[in-house]
Design goal:
The complex is a heterodimer.
Chain A: E1 7-15, H1 22-25, H2 45-48, E2 70-73, H3 85-93, E3 97-100, H4 105-112, E4 117-120, H5 123-135, E5 140-144, E6 149-152, E7 158-160, H6 165-173, H7 177-182, H8 185-193
Chain B: H1 4-10, E1 13-16, E2 22-25, E3 28-31, H2 37-45, E4 56-58, H3 76-92, E5 95-96, H4 107-113, E6 122-125, E7 139-142, H5 145-154, E8 156-159, E9 163-170, H6 179-190, E10 198-203, H7 205-208, H8 212-220, E11 229-231, H9 236-242, H10 251-261, E12 274-279, E13 286-288, E14 296-298, H11 314-324, E15 339-342, H12 344-347, H13 350-360, E16 370-373, H14 378-386, H15 389-395, E17 421-424, E18 439-442, H16 445-454
Parallel strand pairs in B: 3-4, 3-6, 4-5, 6-7, 9-10, 9-12, 10-11, 15-16, 15-17, 17-18
Antiparallel strand pairs in B: 1-2, 2-8, 13-14
Helix pairs in contact in B: 2-5, 6-8, 13-16
Classes of the chains: A alpha/beta, B alpha/beta.
Chain lengths: ~190, ~475
Amino acid sequence: MKEKFEILRSTCVPLPLENVDTDQIIPARFLKATTKEGFGANLFHDWRYDKQGNKIETFVLNDPRYSGKILVAGKNFGCGSSREHAAWAIAGYGFRVVVSSFFADIHKNNELNNGVLPVVVSEPFLAALFASIAENPETAVEVNLPEQRITNMSTGKSENFEINTYKKHCLINGLDDIDYLLTNKQKIEEYERL
Amino acid sequence: MNTLFDKIWDAHVVAAVEDGPVQLYVDRLYCHEVTSPQAFAGLRERGLKPFRPERIFCMPDHNTPTRNQDKPIEDPVSKAQVDTLQKNASDFGLTHFGMMHPKNGIIHVVAPERGLTLPGMTIVCGDSHTSTHGAMGAVAFGIGTSEVEMALASQCILQQKPKTMRITIDGRLGKGVTAKDVALYVIAMMTTGGATGYFVEYTGAVVRSMTMEGRLTLCNLSIEMGARGGMVAPDETTFAYLKGREYAPQGEAWDKAVAYWKTLGSGSDAVFDKEVVFRAEDIEPMITYGTNPGMGTGITQTIPLSSSTPEAGRASYRKSLEYMGFNEGDPLIGKPVDYVFLGSCTNGRIEDFRMFAAIVKGRKKAPGVTAWLVPGSWMVDAQIRAEGLDGIFADAGFELRQPGCSACLAMNDDKIPAGKYAVSTSNRNFEGRQGPGSRTLLASPLVAAAAAVTGKVTDPRLMINA
């Protein structure tokens, strides 16, 4: 059973870069663990720390002005490697929502399978949100999953977002796909006999 | 409708979730050591066993060293991950080709060459380059670890059906232009996210006349434009490649299989959600200059100006060139090269080693260059030796290493040092991909070989005889 998701209101961490690949989210040398824990400490490791392991002050995760459970990123977020460790790192760090105008397919599924909600917004909504956060780092965003609505609390602008009914049901009820698949074993055996 | 992809996908739907994904049966689940341990752990926590163990094939490839594989892995964390896969396979009765096993190698090189991957199959693996297997006319795609757990538990995964795209490449490729160049050209034109949400079928005269190795390279790189997968309709080239391979059907079963495989191609009435056409004559040997595979251009070109990219992407574009230490407008030819990597699931097959040998034969490795030649599997290694290519490499000052993913993602000791330039035949030039601070230029085996003997980016067409 995973943590249930309904309505989240939080400040945001802005990452206005495009094509952020999963090698940046979690570099390959941190993939050697055999459990799902501890990846949050290495989220964006090579942008976050220098070679000596000191914090790079200019990177958003190290900037004290920004915090919250929502990561806002440029388009094509999570491209490249299928590593689910990227989703474990995002969830492990404490994010529950990633907002972007476009997500890579595999990473989007990985987020959904780990209780992180990818919210796809329009390019103008994303640009306005980056502008709001730049102007006021305290800008909050409200994500309402049952109503599939995201609101920039600084401007009051709302937008609806898409999510398939099944995944929405899973997130709201904290269920996962294996629970579903296992109720369907008979159908699998019937398929195999065809 | 009625595409190669639709035919295979639809034949594997077990059930549909109302207003949601479909439950898709998978014929093969491939597992490597990096993305499977948490899936096996999840299975144990639920008190389950793999549902169809005979359909699951495991092998370590990401962490394996490329020297002294007969000795224990020195890095204890890498060793633990490789040992975990062996234990999981042994506990659950799964086929496992461990390190030094004659069938070991990179999973995407081994499965096609052993005939495990066959036309008409659905294939998944916790690895984005699973798209490689589409070259055989299979629906193959990368998945996350939660989905690996699903496939272990039920031999099915829940998946939204992607849209379909046909990419046609007409005409005839020029001298020195390889499947890798075709792929890098297509990705540069489509951009790194341009095929997201689509499953791609490659066709046209260029693809039809490509060898199996070339098609595997082409399909391998589909993910680098965001595609869910890439595939090529099975034809005589496919059948000739597969016939007699260890796990391929034999005798009567073979004839029956071929008859079925011949029905899989897209119908003349097939409808794709998107169609794109390219011309072979527009493609020259390619090389990348930035930090995603879409940032590539013809080797004789200059690095595009940031003003030629869309406004919203300019900050990312400049950050990328800054990381590479390149300037807008710089020519690529003549850029100094410190490292050369030949290998990976993209270009670690026999044909890639033949191409590299064709250039380095009778020449010498440039003194300042460190080169790593890593076969994709022991089968490729054996073929290299059988053809005497190892002698050509040795005479030119190159050392052949042992199989694995190696410097493609540097999970073993093969790391490109910070700030150094590597011409690599692999698939990703992301920041730090080949080691923290490494700078990667993706290219074909011919371009890699030309760089290895000259110490700089060089047009291989000037070095090919006849």
